[in-house]
Amino acid sequence: MAIELKQPRKSRPAWHKLTVSGVRALTADAVEVTLAVPEHLRPAFDFKPGQHLTFQRVEADGSEVRRSYSLASTPRELAAAGTLRLGIRSIPEGTFSGYANRRLLPGDVLEVLPPLGHFCTDIRPDRHYGSVVAGSGITPIIAIATAALEAGAVVTLLYSNRTEDSTMFAAELRELERVHGDRLRLHHVRTRADGPTPLLTGRLTPERLRQVLGTAVDAGEVDEWFLCGPYEMVLGVKEVLEAAGTGEIHTELYTV
User: Fold this and answer.
1) What structural domains and CATH numbers belong to the chain?
2) Residue in 211, 217, 204 with CA at minimum distance from that of residue 246
3) How far apart are CA 210 and CA 221, in angstroms?
4) S-S: 137 plus which of 14, 108, 167, 254, CB 3.0-4.6 Å?
């Protein structure tokens, strides 16, 4: 008798309607969006720091728009307050990002898929996590950094922005520094203004990163790296870190 073995079919993620509970300006062109998650949906929306949500919206002409944005909050916040937070920067001709920045209001309802993505890790208190990030790429990184610091780990963060005013989640990073002290080693890089030092002023090119790794940051101490930003930056940083023989490297490409 022949027996046909079939792989079990994976159920497709279901869309859920979540209510916007807050919209807060982060910079002139970026907002933080907070979603309220009913208690019965919290297991479905449980996530690892670094994962993202996908939104679906039907335009006036009937076309369907889907966009994904990383979570800036932590699983602990979801469990305690029933909220998810995201950072959304408006980009030129960005259909959903423009809507979120200019028209989205508390009380609006969005169609959302449960969290997805592999830009994450099992956070451990005995690890040192490093990150090189540009612009809105900070969104998944602040979730990873917060969870790691709360677990007792060490975090090194190189964060590149045009100016101080264009820096998303600047206040949250200052608070993490205040609470966790020298377990957060934060280095701001400015591309269109003076940075804290000449070394941290200008584009974060591979050449500049090699200098930074030889002075401000010890790559040999880092167990895992998270790189998030535009393709050219992420690729260049990855090559430098690989040549330095550092720890495991995770990458995510972002429109900043």
Assistant:
1) 16-116 (2.40.30.10), 128-253 (3.40.50.80)
2) 217
3) 15
4) 254
